[in-house]
Amino acid sequence: MTPLIERDLRPQDAEAAWTLSIEAGWNQNVADWRFMLTHGKALGVVDDTGTWVASALALPLGARLSWLSMVLVTQAQRRRGLGTALLKRCLAHVEARGAAAGLDATELGRPVYLPLGFRDLYRIPRWHIDRAGDPVPPPADVLLRPMLEADLVRVSTFDVARSAMERGYILAHLRTRRPDLAWIAERDGRVAGYAVGREGRAATSIGPIVADEEGIGLALASRALAAAPGPFLMDVPDTHDEVARWLRAAGATSPRAFVRMLRGALPGLERDRHIIALAGAELA
User: Fold this and answer.
1) What pTM did the predictor assign?
2) Domains defined along the chain, listed by start
């Protein structure tokens, strides 16, 4: 049996670890890995050649929450408990911080997380979009404009009040990385919604989008999708029927879904009314 060694994953390991998500068919690119490894606690396993064969990561979203993701095991090393062992190590790190743990589970991953104390919050279909749908104007009293660096403090304050996640550093990273996808909605000079996104390995990911009303969120999604060529991915809680109808009309399909799950307590995380689109399973 090949000897395996557990190690911390560090930012300089981003390109080597990327092969794990490529093998799984996931959409992350090297920039995603480098960002998560810079800001999160990541563990991995290497074989005797120094190749990464498993990973897991906990990304802090304020003092009360960490987001778990990138639980990956290469095909040849599966069914040896590597992914579960790394996940438990990340959970121990989160517990030591006194924080709750959240994640977005695939259909295959959910049965693994339930016995570990996670519970379901809501379902999130993943939409595959080849092109932007028909333009959607915002409500008459709402202005859409590109998001500026100077908007980030207000946007982050707006976001935490509606998402329960303290992720201002993620929003700043995404706005800097793809300013063409970053939009803000204002009503009477106050933030009423925002959208950001990023390029991925195979598709552009649109989200998070957070808005006071679904109509505002849909207008933001329309503007962001129109700003770049497809294809796109967009994770939309299944309570947003208006957004789903618009996506279907544009020919989008939703072949699979995630389930948002939580271990511990974080009031407000279960509310999806204002969460029009997620940042993807790895960035919440």
Assistant:
1) 0.96
2) 5-98 (3.40.630.30), 126-258+267-277 (3.40.630.30)
